[in-house]
Structure formats: structure tokens, C-alpha cells
Design goal:
BolA; 4 helices; 3 strands; 108 residues; 3-stranded mixed sheet; BolA/IbaG_stress_morph_reg; alpha+beta
Length: 108
């Protein structure tokens, strides 16, 4: 479920600007968790950028986390990252697996 909330837009803008993305999906997965309706707390990002070329997966994730540090410190509870180079994305099936359903949390 994608939304166009303030945090969703901030994530999209920051990643596009910092990474000059070739492909970007910002998916708000908050609805899958025990949070208020229309929350923006759980996200999956699919980021394709030339800036990932030559970087190990952990360094790609650290780069994305650093770009989004303000969001992660101010309300974003979870961030799932798919980070690929354009070559990796082009040779893939371009299918991003769904995240599993919430397995607990507050009030469960």
C-alpha cells in the first residue's frame, strides 16, 4: 500500500536527490502493523542507483539509513531496504516480495 503522506514524500525526495535513483518505490507498510490508521511508521524502499556500484550490500543499507536518519529518529519504526545497481535491477525479475504480516507488537 503506497501513500502520499508527509513522511512518504520526504523519504522519496531525499532518496531521489541523494542517490539520483533510476527506479524508486516507497511503500508504506504501516497498515500491516498494530498502529493507528494512516500511520507512517513502517516502510519498504526499493532503490536502484548507480551510486551503489561497487558497494557491498551492508554499505548500501548504511547509505540509505544515513540519508534517512532524521526520519528514523523521528517516527519511522522500521525500514526494509532493497538496494540494487541498475544492472542488477535490469537482470532481475523486478518483483519485490511482500513483507510478512506483523508477528506481534503492542496490544497483541
Amino acid at each position: 500500500m503506497s501513500t502520499t503522506g508527509i513522511i512518504t514524500n520526504a523519504i522519496r525526495t531525499k532518496l531521489q536527490s541523494a542517490l539520483q535513483t533510476k527506479h524508486l518505490e516507497v511503500i508504506n507498510e504501516s497498515h500491516m502493523h498494530n498502529v493507528p490508521k494512516n500511520a507512517e511508521t513502517h516502510f519498504k524502499v526499493v532503490v536502484v542507483s548507480d551510486k551503489f556500484d561497487g558497494l557491498a550490500l551492508i554499505k548500501r543499507h548504511r547509505l540509505v539509513n544515513d540519508i534517512l536518519k532524521d526520519e528514523l529518529q523521528n517516527g519511522v519504526h522500521a525500514l526494509s531496504i532493497v538496494a540494487k545497481t541498475p544492472e542488477q535491477w535490469d537482470s532481475s525479475d523486478k518483483v519485490v516480495e511482500s513483507s510478512p504480516n506483523c508477528r506481534g507488537g503492542f496490544g497483541k
